[in-house]
């Protein structure tokens, strides 16, 4: 397969258009419970799908691949085989070291950038997402900016299970970090009321999850 050409200029921060207004959007993170069968249901239902990091392996047909770690993009050489949009954040604080790393990865691999800041709640600014300390939260906020009416989460375990940190095992040693799950959960809890006020319903369809601030439905019912 021929690698796709970069699609964005390095410093181009384009506003996110609400092109999915009123639709259901599945957001797939990389928790141990992420299942190919659930993503297959999303594909069969024809719903928009955002995959986070290695979740793209189970859904290479997804609309968006979101990755918040420049090391991940560099390790996998920009995942050029992915044909949808590829996003990386752009921290509104250029003195922060990761901001420089994100910029360099965007330059190298032609990734689309979205402005970001570490803040509670969700952003409705089409050029900015809130980070929530993790890529899954950021991908959820991106779905909001795209106009999602219902967001269905899967693979949001917020913990390790059966010795697994991710559905595929562990990241390479150069990318392994400690995950402060309690902090992550707190950010999701801070988003509950802002999401309601924005008219966005969030369902947690993760097969196993400590994220209890959103109601649970199995994927087949969440997509009805």
List the helices and strands and how they pair.
Blueprint: E1 24-28, H1 36-45, E2 48-52, E3 64-66, H2 70-75, E4 85-91, H3 97-109, E5 112-117, E6 128-130, H4 135-145, E7 150-154, H5 181-197, E8 201-204, H6 219-222
Parallel strand pairs: 1-2, 1-7, 2-3, 3-4, 4-5, 5-6, 7-8
| Quaternary status | single chain
Shape: globular
Order of helices and strands: EHEEHEHEEHEHEH
Sheet with the most strands, sense and barrel status: 8 strands, parallel
Low-confidence stretches: 1-6
Would you give an account of this structure?
- With 224 residues, this protein is α/β, with parallel strands linked by helices.
- Helix content is 27%, strand content 17%.
- The chain is built from 6 helices and 8 strands, in the order E-H-E-E-H-E-H-E-E-H-E-H-E-H.
- It has helices spanning 36-45, 70-75, 97-109, 135-145, 181-197, 219-222; strands at residues 24-28, 48-52, 64-66, 85-91, 112-117, 128-130, 150-154, 201-204.
- The protein has an 8-stranded parallel β-sheet, with helices on both faces.
- Helix 5 (181-197) links the parallel strand 7 and strand 8 (201-204).
- The longest helix is centred in the C-terminal third of the chain and has 17 residues, at 181-197.
- The radius of gyration is 16 Å and the shape is globular.
- The protein starts with 23 loop residues before the first strand and ends with a helix.
């Amino acid at each position: 397969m021929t690698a796709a050409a970069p699609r964005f200029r390095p410093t181009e921060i384009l506003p996110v258009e609400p092109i999915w207004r009123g639709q259901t959007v599945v957001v797939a993170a990389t928790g141990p419970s992420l299942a190919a069968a659930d993503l297959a249901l999303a594909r069969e239902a024809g719903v928009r799908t955002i995959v986070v990091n290695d979740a793209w392996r189970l859904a290479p047909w997804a609309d968006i691949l979101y990755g918040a770690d420049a090391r991940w993009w560099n390790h996998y050489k920009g995942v050029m085989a992915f044909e949808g949009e590829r996003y990386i954040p752009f921290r509104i604080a250029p003195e922060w070291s990761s901001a420089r790393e994100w910029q360099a990865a965007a330059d190298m691999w032609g990734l689309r950038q979205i402005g970001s800041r570490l803040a509670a709640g969700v952003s409705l600014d089409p050029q900015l997402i809130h980070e929530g300390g993790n890529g899954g939260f950021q991908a959820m906020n991106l779905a909001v900016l795209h106009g999602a009416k219902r967001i269905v989460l899967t693979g949001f375990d917020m913990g390790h299970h059966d010795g697994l940190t991710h559905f595929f095992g562990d990241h390479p040693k150069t990318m392994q970090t400690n995950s402060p799950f309690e902090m992550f959960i707190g950010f999701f809890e801070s988003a509950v009321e802002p999401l309601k006020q924005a008219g966005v319903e969030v369902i947690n369809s993760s097969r196993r999850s400590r994220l209890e601030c959103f109601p649970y439905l199995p994927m087949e019912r969440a997509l009805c």
